[in-house]
Amino acid sequence: MPALIPTDHSARVVWLGFQPVPVEKLVITSAPLEVMPLRFAGFEGEVHAGLTRPSCSRVLKQYPRNTEIRNVRQLCVVSAEEMAEVARDMGLERMDYAWVGASLVLEGIPDLTHLPPSSRLQGPDGVTLVVDMENLPCQEPAVTIEKALPGQGKGFKRAAEGKRGVTAWVEREGALRLGDVVRLHIPAQKPWAGRINAAEK
To answer: pTM value?
Structure first.
């Protein structure tokens, strides 16, 4: 029995980007692409690429900082619709996807930030990304926006709650191109019954 279900939901790739250097002084430096070749380690030359990574503050309850762990944060996937809502709530005319360090911006999947972990996004040539989990808002986009638009950055974290997109890693190699359509596949399982009792402790 298949463990993943192809859905009727698909999305168009409207932006591709990469971050060639680490964040400096909390400012993200990203550049747009037309084609993104993807290998098992992610996009070669991108600061988040690699089969493993040093653990960070997101997993301090699991590992000491800088423990070598599997890299499930190779790519940052965001929704064009959700980013438009964030921009509106911040009083901006538009959101520059480079400001949020987006690798991939998709248009067409509702509530993308809350896709079930382990969902797949599959491109035309078979390239497949596995959704890790929600990408929580952080200070880096806020500082980046503030530098570009003084007085505007401080509202990012609150506006982006529940709309920051997801992190993902490459399960099958291939390439994504602007205008490509990716299809959503979701795990064939019901929500975990213990979730209500799994409050943060």
So the answer is: 0.93
